[in-house]
Structures are given as structure tokens and as C-alpha cells.
Specification:
Blueprint: H1 2-14, H2 17-46, H3 52-90, H4 93-96, H5 105-121, E1 142-148, E2 155-161, H6 165-182, H7 187-204, H8 223-240, H9 245-267, E3 271-272, H10 273-279
Antiparallel strand pairs: 1-2, 2-3
Helix pairs in contact: 1-2, 1-3, 2-3, 2-7, 6-7, 6-8, 7-8
Length: 289
């Protein structure tokens, strides 16, 4: 909890999107507390009928429940509220040390209000803005940079921000499949899927409610979780059909190949403009003038 709270505080001090992750962490935290509460009630019901070591274990579980609950809630409040708030405040120390115009505590609070009002009330559009439902299908990448080579005709540098189609599109399918599979899964599979789906939802669902213009890079924080869900689906196939494991290596090889194919427009490596035309697999993808 301490390490998780420390990373949460550093994340929030870097970008507000981590506050969304805090909502997911809170859901997971209270799910675990609910399970402990169920164990406590079970121990109370069964302690009198149990015998031997089982009786002692149940009596102990019932006796220490409220003490452990208090310790856990106290630690969670310290690690996920107090420490992150101090880290966030400390991130403004460079502003406080500006000579002539230092920020005070009230100034920092006013800045938070300004940032929130700006983002919640922003009405401006953008040619590369895209709605949340377009991100998983790479509907509208952001074109950041374009520069023709002054010495070699036909050679250009271009940078666009988008995802690997063989990661994002299968990841979308895996997210749908795993959502349905969660309700039928049991044991470790159910706990693992629940954890990943809650994490994914905490990073993706809040953007559905954001009224301002949004961009495909807001989806980047969701990508690790769609990869995890894809891995779960692949492992499930391997368990049912061990001889099909070669498909896993083939898929990974194609992912790496596609990364290499698109690397020039992810990094700005100079290439022939015709190569950028070849990579434009969708009319909404823009790589050059």
C-alpha cells in the first residue's frame, strides 16, 4: 500500500489522469475489504461448530478483524490521501522559489481552479481531435511534425502519434471477450480479469464524460491493460490447443514487424514520401502535406 500510494502521488503530481487511476484503486481496495468482511462473518458463524485448529483460526480471524480493518483504513488514508497531497504540493516548490513573484498556498489553490475551469469549459476544436470511441480503432492519429529534406528530393520526415494496429485492434476484441468471460470465470481467472478490467475502465471510461476536445494519446494509459487482456486470450487458446502455440510466436513476430514498418513515422526518420503513402492504410491517417 505504501509503495502504491507513493507512485500514485508521483503520478498525480505529473498528470491529472492518474487521479482516474485512483478511482480504480479505490474500487479494488473496497472489493478486498468486502471479501475480508465476508470472511469475518463466515468465521463468526462457523467458529462454534469448528473443531481443532480450524476453530482456533476462525476465532482468531473474528477477534482481529476490526483491529486490522482500522489499521488498513488508517494506512490507506495516509498512503493514498495525505502522502499524495504532500507530494502534489511539493511539486510546486520551484514556483514558490521564483524571485519577485512566488506562489503561496492560496496561489496554488487558485491555479488548480484555473486548470479545472479551463479544461472543463474549453470549447475549441482541433483538426486532429478525436472522440473516445475512435481511439481503440486508431480513428484519428495526431500528426505532429513534417519536414521535407532540403538536400534530397522526395525525402521527408514525419511524426504521427498512434498505435500498432496489431496491438490495438486485437486488444479491443480481447477487452470485449474478457468482459463477457469475467462473468463466467471462477477463482484466479475471475480475480485477475476483474483487476485488469477495473484498471482499464479507470483509465478509459472517465474520458467518455469529458466535454472538451480529446486526442488519441489519452488512450495510451489504457494500452498496457488491453495488452494484458490479449495475453490472457492467447494463453487461453494455448491451454485448449497446445499445438497452436506457434500462432503466438507468429503474432508476436507480426507485431514487431509492424512496429518496424511504422517506425519512421513514429520517430521522424527520413523516408521517401511514397513510403508514407504506402503506410496510409486509412483516409483519416495524415503523414504528409
Amino acid at each position: 500500500l505504501g509503495l502504491s500510494g507513493l507512485m500514485f502521488g508521483l503520478g498525480c503530481a505529473t498528470k491529472w489522469i492518474c487521479i482516474y487511476a485512483g478511482a480504480g484503486l479505490a474500487v479494488l481496495f473496497f472489493i478486498v475489504l468486502w471479501r475480508r468482511w465476508q470472511e469475518y462473518r463466515y468465521a463468526l458463524r462457523c467458529a462454534d461448530d469448528a473443531e481443532g485448529s480450524a476453530k482456533g483460526i476462525m476465532q482468531h480471524a473474528a477477534a482481529v478483524f476490526y483491529r486490522n480493518l482500522g489499521i488498513t483504513l488508517g494506512c490507506a488514508s495516509l498512503f493514498f490521501i495525505v502522502i499524495p497531497a504532500l507530494i502534489y504540493y511539493a511539486s510546486y516548490f520551484p514556483y514558490m522559489m521564483v524571485k519577485g513573484h512566488p506562489y503561496d498556498f492560496q496561489g496554488i489553490l487558485n491555479l488548480q481552479k484555473y486548470m479545472f475551469d479551463y479544461h472543463s469549459g474549453l470549447k475549441a476544436g482541433h483538426p486532429y481531435a478525436s472522440a473516445w470511441y475512435l481511439w481503440p480503432i486508431i480513428g484519428r492519429p495526431i500528426w505532429f511534425y513534417y519536414q521535407p529534406d532540403m538536400e534530397t528530393a522526395g525525402v521527408v520526415s514525419s511524426i504521427s502519434s498512434f498505435g500498432n494496429p496489431l496491438v490495438w485492434l486485437p486488444g479491443l476484441a480481447a477487452a470485449f471477450f474478457c468482459t463477457f468471460a469475467f462473468f463466467r470465470a471462477k477463482g484466479e481467472d475471475k480475480r485477475m480479469l476483474g483487476f485488469i478490467l477495473i484498471a482499464l475502465a479507470s483509465q478509459y471510461v472517465p474520458w467518455i464524460l469529458v466535454p472538451r476536445a480529446t486526442f488519441i494519446y489519452h488512450y495510451f494509459a489504457s494500452v498496457p491493460f488491453i495488452i494484458m487482456l490479449t495475453v490472457y486470450c492467447v494463453r487461453r487458446i494455448e491451454r485448449k490447443r497446445p499445438k497452436a502455440k506457434w500462432l503466438t510466436y507468429a503474432y508476436i513476430g507480426l507485431v514487431v514487424l509492424l512496429f518496424g514498418l511504422f517506425y519512421p513515422i513514429l520517430s521522424g526518420v527520413p523516408v521517401q514520401q511514397g513510403y508514407l503513402d504506402f503506410l496510409r492504410w486509412s483516409p483519416s491517417w495524415v503523414f504528409h502535406l
